[in-house]
Amino acid sequence: MINGVMYRIRTGVQWRDLPERYGPWKTVHERYRRWSADGTRELLLQRVQAEADAAGDIDWEVSVDSMLVRAHQHAAGARLAPPPLLKGGSAKAVRTARIWADLIGFLAEVVQEVRRSAARAAASPARST
């Protein structure tokens, strides 16, 4: 499920187009939606960033040219509040802790890979168009 979310984030595919190896797309989407609504996603991001920052793996000096960042035509009027939670019980504490640990480990690996990719890109010669 976590790999499915990360695949969608990396590639930008629609939820319905997730490869079958990640399981039913509705399940992956629903878990991601619930984690976004209850603050789990934000908490995971904060924990992974804190661990990476403590290890010195984050370079906080980033420059982005706003001329290259375009908003989608449907970006205006986006919902400000997270989607509401569905009714239902919460997962067992042990299972939840295991999922958290797995997700934090996986996200830490993603942060490392992004950092390696950025280093490779910075080391490559500049290309002109």
UniProtKB/TrEMBL annotation:
Transmembrane intervals: none
Protein name: Transposase
Record-annotated Insertion element IS402-like domain positions: 1-42
Pfam families for this protein: DUF4096
Organism annotation: Streptomyces caelestis
InterPro entries: IS402-like_dom, Transposase_6_like
Superkingdom of origin organism: Bacteria
